[in-house]
Amino acid sequence: MKSTLKMVMKLDEKKTVTLSLASPKTGLTKAEVETCLNEIIAKQAILVNGAAPTGIKEVYVQNTEAQALA
């Protein structure tokens, strides 16, 4: 099963941007991710069409499993 960390941040005008990280480390906490995202937001390290994220909407791990067709 594949795991992907999804980090959704708020932009202006009710839009969002999602950062994805494949195979996050085991035991990663929400607090660790939010600390990193808050630093990204404070430093305006990411711009999406000229807009910087304004806050965190949600963070979660998405698990997917590939299934071969018969």
N-to-C series of helices and strands: EEHE
Helix percentage: 10-25%
Task: Give the terminus-to-terminus CA distance.
Answer: 19 Å
Mean pLDDT: 95
Give the strand order, joined by hyphens, for the main sheet: 2-1-3
Could you list the spans in which at least 5 consecutive residues all have pLDDT below 50? none
Number of helices: 1
Shape: globular
Q: Would you count the extended β strands for me?
A: 3
List the domain count as a whole number.
1
- Major sheet: 3 strands, antiparallel
Class by helix and strand content? alpha+beta
Strand content: 35-45%
Report Rg.
14 Å
Structure description:
With 70 residues, the chain is an alpha+beta fold. It has one domain. It has one helix at residues 30-42; strands at 2-10, 16-22, 55-64. Strands 2-1-3 form a three-stranded antiparallel beta sheet, covered by helices on one side. It is globular.
Secondary-structure topology with pairs:
Layout: E1 2-10, E2 16-22, H1 30-42, E3 55-64
Antiparallel strand pairs: 1-2, 1-3
Give a quick set of tags describing it.
70 residues; alpha+beta; 3-stranded antiparallel β-sheet; 1 helix; 3 strands
Question: Quick recap of the structure?
Answer:
With 70 residues, this protein is of the alpha+beta class.
